[in-house]
Amino acid sequence: MASERPLSTPLNQILPPLILGGAGFSYQHTSTPSVEQTREVVSLAFQLGVRAIDTSPYYEPSEELLGEALSHPQFTSKYDRNDYILMTKVGRVSATKSDFSPEWVRFSVARSLQRLRTDYLDVVFCHDIELVEEENVLEAIAVLNEMVEAGTIRYIGISGYPIDTLARVARRSREMYGRPLDVIQNWAQLTLQNDRLEREGLQVFREAGVSCVCSSSPLASGLLRGEGVPIAALGDWHPAPEGLRRAAHAAAVYVASQGEILARLALRYALWRAKVCSTGNVRVGTIMGGTSVAEIEENITTAVGVLGRDGETLGWNGAGREVESSNDSADVQDLELFRAVQEILGQWRNYSFSGENPATEGDVVQTKL
């Protein structure tokens, strides 16, 4: 099945502002990921305007579950394959193993095509590139370039946490292959807790020729919510130290005392900043998670309030309820809560999971009540 989308169309012209994250259908985030639940979540997300999905073989068994959902007759009767963007990754194999060799990249893409039940992938990222030598990543990008020429994939990206590493590999890739990467995915750094992607990342990515950024983990992988970090079948994998967890909990308690929910507030902040940063030819899409129908419905309702709609889908030009004097202004009450949460986080604000600017583990958290 060939895509009707012109291959020359830059990704920043078609990337939507909200993307459904496939990690919610993995053992990292839920103990019992299921076909039925995935199908229900995907159907509702599309009904509410989502038109892009991001996953990875590492998010086991996300690809298989999504493939079942996307190929189900109830879904295919409403949506064609070219109606949505499907993104996956290569390289990250398990918690302790990565493989960016040409042989594995080819195998991984072929397996993803089979699992997702499609004959092309819109975006393939090299996953968590900081875990291997940069030369290995550049070698993998060469293979992905071949796949773009063959029509197997449409766009190429890299993903990871350290902004400096992502920018350096993007520059080197552009120098080696004569074209910039289409997209970079960075996690947990356009959030109420850490905004380094906005302050530093977007500029260096732009200098490397990258005009599309996917900001994932707007809740810092579940840190910014009242329930605390997710603990599922794979146990407690979250990198936040205990002091940061206490600070996040204190922030959740304060926000609740003001009649709001931290997760909802944090999502509004991330979407607002991504929208503000999407200027000119640069687009910042937010990858939003969710493991249940109720969670997805609440998250997308929150997103609509910030992003508005373009027709039936979530779009860049809609005006949401958070608008004050312009489409880039957050609600005054939200601004006050944003500042309060960041004050509670104190020295843990902008704490980096990669070890940059660490706070002190014993910092005392003062709860604002």
What is the CATH domain class?
Alpha Beta
Q: How many strand elements?
A: 10
The name of the CATH superfamily reads NADP-dependent oxidoreductase domain
Strands of the widest sheet, in order across it, are 1-2-3-4-5-6-7-8
Indicate the percent of residues in helices: 25-40%
The CATH topology label is: TIM Barrel
Sequence of secondary-structure elements: EHEHHEHEHEHEHEHHEHEEH
InterPro entries: AKR (IPR020471), NAD(P)_OxRdtase_dom_sf (IPR036812), NADP_OxRdtase_dom (IPR023210)
GO cellular component, one term: cytosol
Pfam families: Aldo_ket_red
Organism: Aspergillus mulundensis
Structural summary, described in words:
The structure is a single chain. This protein is globular. The chain is an alpha/beta fold and 369 residues long. It has one domain (11-241, 264-322): TIM Barrel, CATH 3.20.20. Helix 5 links the parallel strand 4 (121-126) and strand 5. The strands form two sheets. It has an eight-stranded parallel beta barrel, surrounded by five helices. Strands 9-10 form a two-stranded antiparallel sheet. 40% of the residues lie in helices and 13% in strands.
Question: What tags apply to this protein structure?
Answer:
369 residues, alpha/beta, TIM Barrel, eight-stranded parallel beta barrel, two-stranded antiparallel ribbon, 40% helix, globular, disordered C terminus
Topology of this protein?
Blueprint: E1 18-21, H1 35-47, E2 52-54, H2 62-71, H3 73-76, E3 85-90, H4 102-116, E4 121-126, H5 134-150, E5 153-160, H6 163-177, E6 183-187, H7 196-207, E7 212-216, H8 242-257, H9 262-277, E8 283-288, H10 293-307, E9 309-310, E10 313-314, H11 332-345
Helix pairs in contact: 1-2, 1-10, 2-4, 5-6, 6-7, 8-11, 9-10
